[in-house]
Amino acid sequence: MVQRLEFLSKVSPFNLLPTEVLEQVADQLQEIRYSKDTVIYQQEVTKMRGVDIIAEGEYESFFYDTQQNKRLLEYHHSGYCYGGISVLLNRKQSIRTVIAKKGTTVFFLHRKDFRSLCKAYEDFVQYFTADFGKRMLNDEFAHFYKRPATFEESYIASEQMYSRKIESIEYREIVSCPQGTPVYETARLMAKHKVSCIFIRDEQAKIVGYVTDITLRDNVVAKQADTAQPVGNIMDNPIVCISTNAYVYEAILMMFRTKTRYLLIKNGDEFVGSISRNKLLSEQAQSPLVFIQSVKQAISVQELKRKWESVPQMVTQLLGRGVNAEIVNQVITTIADTIAIKVIESVIATMGQPPAKFVFMVLGSEGRKEQTFKTDQDNAIIYEDKANEQRELVREYFLSFAQQVSEKLDHIGFSFCTGGYMAQNPKWTHSLSHWKRNYESWMTEAVPETVIQFSTFFDCRYLYGEAGIMDELKEFLDEELQKPLGKIFFHMAKNALQYEPPLTFFKNIKTFTKGSQEVFDIKKSMTPIVDLVRMYALRHRIFEVNTGERLKALKEKGVFNEKEVHELIQSYYFLMGLRLRNQASQIIRDRTEPDNYIDPDKLTKIEKVALKEIFKTIDNFQTRIKMEFTNNLFG
């Protein structure tokens, strides 16, 4: 008793209590011994019966993240009091996980006695609340204490957005006028019909452009232009149209990608009306598509960085509401594209207009519109061929331009490509004629190294600039792909067969050890689908870039039947959904860099069964590749 009293008198906050109270406390203490490596408390699981005062030995306390990594590791020794904050401020649940690292002895004070002291002595309770306040100043502690498992903020409108078609939306009749109509008369027509957009027709009554309130402001009023001139002189284009059978989300994404504020709506071959972006967005309040609009309005790199950092939360919401991973990929891609375009435009504004027409294209997963959060920059620049005396000037501009774009994207969160597939690499910023030679040499040489480069650069997509340059490159590729290419397909097949589905002989999920977990690499599990679909797309000269879109095009050509396409699309986007959920959880819950490792033990029984079936499906398609492209069932 005397020893306990003497011990307590040296322990904060018990040394704040009167001697007679301290004597009573010492009498209430229970001595408990723990052997080495005993797990005493589990975060957010163990209900605290009271508080522990370490007499001898050592406590290790920490937070586990979802990957079972120890975070904010601390060691506590004789005189440390654990459990006070948990009892007072965390619904009696242990805030952290606690392990006895040595043979440890503690004095245990029951919860009701501890609370009685807190009620009676202000200094005593303030010791714990002040300690908690200091800890909450640590962002990481605050993050894990709050445990953000669900998110009340909803970025999502009704699920109808993803199933509702354009034909169900009320759209306007087309108001139009001939391109020879004077500007002032065009404005009168707009006022008469109470529209903010009028479409312009040529001599054959074909719609060739449009004029909006903004067009009149920017092209006429601001320039003090002649209002009697033909409206064809000041109209905007190109015309962007969408089918009545398209979904609402497709229409909005198309508007963001093309920068148009109005879509013509087509039923078959006939234009039946038009719809504005504002009209569609007004029906989708708080949707991800409104978020994209806010990205477009961002005015600084820091603001774009904050926008990108909030995307995982949105993705968690979308997937949690059952939105298909294919749609989620489109949303992520559109946000990433919007950010990249904003960066490109800001660099051009700083450097001045480019000395030549060019295309900024994206490659790899970004090129396929299959971006995740474990992503880096894959991009390149093609510029038009110029006379000899201008070549160096043009090249110097675009290399400097590419470097500034890449640095800003890296700051926002799109890290530099470790393989160097970036426009700032002089190898990947060249003239159109040089790019044609690149593709030609890769296809002619056809060794494993060049085949990898060809595969990466086949998954290329226009992002910004002169679309005609990209079209010319694809026309060139279309001609080249008609030549005999057995060697390149052989090496592509060998590359595609490197990644085997992670199944054991007994058809269980094969894992490897990473840290304290047994995991499999979900990216490598998806790669065979990407590779095999790309191979068939190349063979049949299909220039769709997205894996799902390629599969649909291959079905139309009769390469795969409906059942095969359904199996592959379902498999691919099931894996994509798991991958996105895992990465979003790592970013949001664990505050760690996302990776592609999945712990099967964290999956539901249904998910595990689905994975095994998917891996069998992939294995079957790989057998088909072996036969068709290598003529060797065992190769």
From TrEMBL:
Keyword Amino-acid biosynthesis (UniProt): no
Limits of the CBS domain: 170-227, 235-291
Every Cyclic nucleotide-binding domain range: 13-135
MF-aspect GO terms: [protein-PII] uridylyltransferase activity
PROSITE patterns: CBS (PS51371), CNMP_BINDING_3 (PS50042)
InterPro entries linked: CBS_dom, CBS_dom_sf, cNMP-bd_dom, cNMP-bd_dom_sf, Diverse_CBS-Domain, DUF294_put_nucleoTrafse_sb-bd, GlnD_Uridyltrans_N, RmlC-like_jellyroll
UniProt keyword terms in alphabetical order: CBS domain
CDD domains: CAP_ED (cd00038), NT_GlnE_GlnD_like (cd05401)
Superkingdom, natural source: Bacteria
Keyword Repeat attached: no
Name of the protein in question: CBS domain-containing protein
